[in-house]
Amino acid sequence: MPRCRHYITAMPIAMNQSFALDRRAAAAVPATARVPFHQIADDKAMLRAAAELTRDLATPRPAIYWADLGVSALVGYAALVVAATADATWLTIVASVVSVLALYRALLFIHEISHVKHAALPRFRLGWNALVGVPMLTPSFMYEGVHNLHHAKTRYGTSEDPEYLPLASMKPWTLPVFILVSLLAPLGLLIRFAILGPLSFVIPALRRPVVERFSALAINPDFRRRVPEGEALKQFNRIDLSASAWALTLVALVAGGVIPLRSFAIGFAIMSAVAVLNQVRTLVAHLWDNHEGEAMSVTAQYLDSVNVPPPSTLPALWAPVGLRYHALHHLLPGLPYHSLGEAHRRISAALDGSSPYHKASYAGLPGLVGRLVRSTMGRKG
């Protein structure tokens, strides 16, 4: 993602909002005793076992996808309406928490859409965009054609990875700013779809930069997505127009008083909370320790990623839709989310304690955040 300036983007579920950041300083961290990630070779026994033990788990089950998405969206929107219209403060707070967790879960199906073969889940992308992507101004094209680059063996952890920054070796102030900037994600998305999107359709010179710079859920600010071509471009434009139409309608409803300002503010706060929760999850999805910026083996990518398996229970809330098995997902990116738990159990039982497989599992969120904070505290500034 030309490297004249260095930024962090607002969030993976946002447009390219950014703030100044000295990424080059990350390469200057003191040498440690650990083996650099780019020097870790693939553990062929682990890769072979993972592939062989999970072949029967690779088919997505449409009933699970549709039911999970439908219930999550229904609960999320119903709770949002209650929160936005309730007179009692306690009810507004409770309903807001429920809405945040449910809509967050529904939103994270964008990750599955970027991996699943669409023929295996007919019309699921269309349904997700109609229920979640367009209403929440994060349509599927913000991730499709972008997230797959994060899984490319020659790109992961490098400057060409749209979803990687060496956070563990950056300055301490980057972490709180990384989280706090996501509070503005709903505003950034409104600007993208209510202003930049419509303008780019009538001002041709603006269209390319809008697509390249403000149409990807990336945390690497130097990333520029490729402009789709052919049928993919037509689909991109259709979804973009739909999201822009909804954004303009929302603004008009608020400006006209149809949606009270208080209700809009509560909805904005809920969407901000969804963004912050996702940003926190992103913060602990990897160890972010590839400060060398070199290409890494699949095993090294796995070890730089995080599983938070049972008996921990809270990850089901802050890392739903299979994202508690993020390291395993990097090992087997084609597995549907509902198969990851069983895959983890099988592989864990089959491989002995010396296997690298067991080294990517962590107890929970506090320990992971603490590890990252301690790593950054080694830097001054």
UniProtKB/TrEMBL annotation:
InterPro entries, alphabetized: FA_desaturase_dom, Fatty_acid_desaturase
Sorted UniProt keywords: Membrane, Transmembrane, Transmembrane helix
GO cellular component: a single term: membrane
Biological process, per Gene Ontology: lipid biosynthetic process
Segments passing through the bilayer: 63-84, 90-114, 126-143, 177-203, 241-259
Signal sequence bounds: none
An example molecular function term from Gene Ontology annotations: oxidoreductase activity, acting on paired donors, with oxidation of a pair of donors resulting in the reduction of molecular oxygen to two molecules of water
Keyword Protein biosynthesis: no
Domain Fatty acid desaturase span(s) in chain numbering: 89-356
Pfam hit, one: FA_desaturase
CDD domains: Membrane-FADS-like
Protein name from the UniProt record: Fatty acid desaturase
Species of provenance: Sphingomonas aerophila
